[in-house]
Specification:
- By secondary structure, this protein is mainly alpha-helical.
- The protein has 2 domains: about 40 residues, no CATH class; about 70 residues, lambda repressor-like DNA-binding domains (434 Repressor (Amino-terminal Domain)).
- Helix content is about 65%, strand content about 0%.
- Helix 3 crosses helix 4.
- The chain is globular and about 50 Å long.
- The termini are close together.
Length: about 130
């Protein structure tokens, strides 16, 4: 990896791990939380509002929204119903060239940079 900048190394790691179970789980959790956030925003609903509707703590809702909670289908259905949504689940053949992955790759890099800057300070170098 010598001579490559941080983004190139990051993208190599993503490419190397994109077929792993953990990576696919993170993709799925990202999709779910993204849809929950969108719906909450459309309804003008806060995390506290959702927690009240679910009868759980706002800390638990926060864990779900951060993707830190591997939620059950039952919990997913409860969240969906609290947001006046249906759960539609389907399985389909794998598509290794998925556009979804490209969207996530860009999102992951953006968030990685934010975390890195937080710990290293603004204007960090992406050079190796």
């Amino acid at each position: 990896m010598a001579g490559k900048n941080l983004q190139e190394r990051f993208l190599e790691l993503v490419d190397k791990n994109k077929d792993s179970l953990e990576f696919k789980l993170e993709e799925l959790l990202y999709d779910i939380t993204e849809e929950i956030y969108k719906r909450m925003e459309n309804l003008g609903m806060s995390q506290q509002d959702l927690a009240r509707k679910l009868g759980v703590s706002s800390a638990y809702v926060s864990k779900i929204l951060r993707g830190n909670e591997n939620i059950s289908l039952k919990t997913l259905l409860k969240v969906a119903l609290a947001l006046d949504l249906e759960v539609e689940l389907y399985l389909k053949p794998l598509d290794k060239r998925s556009f979804r992955f490209k969207k996530r790759e860009a999102f992951a890099w953006t968030n990685y940079k934010k975390v890195f800057e937080k710990h290293q300070g603004p204007g960090f170098s992406t050079a190796a």
